[in-house]
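Quick look at the format.
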Amino acid sequence: MPLDKTLQDFLDQARASGAPDLADLPVPAARDLYRHILAAADVPPADVRVEDREIDGPDGTLALRLYRPRHESPQGIVVYFHGGGFVLGDLDGYDSVCRQLCEDSGALLVSVDYRLAPEHVFPAAIDDAWAALEWVARHAEALLPDGARIAVAGDSAGALLAALMCIWARDRRGPAIAFQALVYPPAGAGRHGEFASRTVHAAGPTLTARTIDYFNRLYFGSEIPPEDIRAAPLLATDLAGLPAALVQVAAYDPLRDEALAFGERLLEAGNDAMIVEYHGLAHGYISMGGMLQAARLAQRQIAQALRTALR
């Protein structure tokens, strides 16, 4: 199965322009390039209501951005965790992704600006994610007066956070989570377990093995993450009793096989899970809905799954 032709042309143009691997850049430059990557192929920003808020986090204030659909009453709340290897990404960079997911799903969407490495290393992002989820649960009736079911969603590093929130909510008797939407989760942290896709797609075409190691060094302090489910949920011995899930993976992704393995573990544990692989797509397609028909289909699939679970 070849790479999507439009995506291939886009990547060829980027290489011809001299675009570097993120791993070759200092963090500020990598963050700036990532914002440009996110904006390059996304859909135009959807017309939804947007509100910025700050809450008390584990180490100071924690910024959230709330999105409400304009053309229907929101039915449920989605807590969204962005990708970027725990090093890149922010509220502004993921604004279009979150606007579109809000409009497509008809839900109130809460985007979380969790702390990033290397300024804030493991497990700062996880602690912020939990604080945001607990805040949403405590304020659900105020956010949606008729009450609301809560779902979690995320892409890449954010998908790991979303998956971990479901495990913690089960084990800590925390907020009730109705659904989890996980887009190419690094369930083995890109290092734990033996997975062929890490070798086959080590050179990309988008995420590379070098970039995974770059992120791990900055976030964990080592290219080999700790043997801890907070780093790699695939290491969990018990995945039973978790919310229903949609796990999406990209065929051209070094994380493909570990994401598939996590989805299979969810099914083996007796959970309701849908596992969908998008052939022809690569890691990062969540922000490519304006350029790739298959990526837009993936966005709509996430939204429909959330809409169904939250109503």
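Next, a different chain entirely:
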Amino acid sequence: VWLDRIEFLVIDEADRLLDMGFIPSVKRIVRYSPFKEQRQTLMFSATFSYDVLNLARQWLFEPVTVEIEPEHKTNNDVEQRVYVVENKDKYKLLQEILKDEPIDKVMIFANRRDQVRRLYDHLKRDGYKVGMLSGEIAQDKRLKMLDQFKQGKNNIMIATDVAGRGIHVDGVSHVINFTLPEQSDDYVHRIGRTGRAGAQGVSISFLSEDDAFYLPEIEKAIGKKLPLTRLEGYC
């Protein structure tokens, strides 16, 4: 690849590249590219923190800023539920939901790679058709698992926010937040995996003692209170 000959440089998900520690690699690519005055550079980011803006100043030449703010933070076609549950009972509740809900395809999100791995191992052991997307999975294996999910060979996909971002799969009927995300933007992004193209979707979030801290910011971001359901035997 002759990077000194490129005309366009597109840096997508700049905030995620920062979070995942990929910026040194991107800087290396930029160094081998033509000077910013001699190429067109496009940078996309869900959030524009100080660090992202600093990168923009380094890499962009006389940039034009385009901001898109959705009228509604969350899709009205997605039914949002929050179940109050103790940490120790989350997996048991997850199994009940997988058994009782009319699920076509479901994406289950957790905050950390070890949580994703543990869920994957448990569900696989219990006979579910399941895939996994996280930073520890090699890219070729990720693509294979994603393809199996798209084709319906696996109907459950467990993912971290980093690995799950930007994934568009038809027919995802449910999203389950096994852990609430620490960033409210990630909640909006997660539940946007369902209820696409006019279809109805369901988002189910588990609220334990560890997750409760994140709920107020999520409600503030989406502009409404989420009704809490206390299930008998789980709280």
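The radius of gyration is 20 Å.

See the schema section for token definitions.
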